[in-house]
Amino acid sequence: MASVRKLPSGNYQGVANWKDATGHRHRKSFTASTERKALRLAEDFEDLHAEPNATISAALDAFICSREAVTSPATVRAYNSYARTLKAQYAAFCALTEPSQKDAQSLVADMLRDGLKPKTIKNMIGLVSSSCKFSGITFPPVTLPRWELRSDFIPRENDMRMIVEEVRGTSLEIPVALGMMGLRRSEIAGLSLDDLDGNTLHIHAALVYGSDNKTHEKGTKTASSDRFITIPDNLADQIREKGFPEMSPGAVTCAFIKVAKRLGLSVRFHDLRHFFASYCHNVLGLSFAQIMALGGWKTDAALKRHYLHAMHEKEAAEKVADAIGRTFGRTL
Questions:
Q1: Within this chain, do residues 123 and 166 fall inside the same structural domain, yes or no?
Q2: Residues 244, 112: one domain?
Q3: What contacts 286, CB < 8 A, 6 or more positions away?
Q4: Residues 59, 188: one domain?
Q5: Residue 19 has what pLDDT?
Q6: Which residue segment(s) compose the domain that 52 sits in?
């Protein structure tokens, strides 16, 4: 029988108790902001395991519900979006109680045929796998489609100059400048004048969208993202004079899309962060550790995989072309 108690933090902990098919007893705890919600999470989990044929659909609901109190509103929103897509487009799979290897791999193939991007497929399969594990359902390993980086993943310097000139004197001028300094869109939206001391900026909050489609203030994406950075003196003076523009993350994205369209560029606002990593590495010669600290990356693995992969290939290609040209130039 489920129980609940108040924690020193002020939250409540619900505890589910159940027996598995072999008769062994198990306990699982849940944390929520209210006593009623904590108890409901524990009771729902007990009901799920009392039912011998729990479906993947029920497992998705139970997993997402258990994460609402401890996960970013933006993450919960993404979970709910993925779950809606799974239940609507892949209802037959979600009705299964024990998916086979063929069922799981067929789901990946169906997603690919439906035009879902490899990154989206990876995230959705990750949600299904975690939900199944949470509810005691075995989800077999699958082969995921290769995740290809865009060819225009990192903006060129000329593109950045065009963008800077285009937004000069507009509400996007400060967000674009901060984006080129490595800040995420959500981090820019979470800034206030209290975070600026001289030319030092403290990044410690973020504004993200929740499942209710409203913005919610939370901490930065990771503990490593809470950081202090130095910005140019003229940018600091401009911020003190004008303040940070009151723009939501969505408003920044919409305004930037219009700028890129006017300039004929396929650049997203988040690509400014890619440019920052590239510039720090290729032009300034900073180490991975320094770039991680400035940009708030948690591990160098993510930095290398997502941001430096494309520029390493370009750098290598240019070195080869230059060496061959100098060595064999007379005979080519």
A1: no
A2: no
A3: 280, 294
A4: no
A5: 64
A6: 3-134
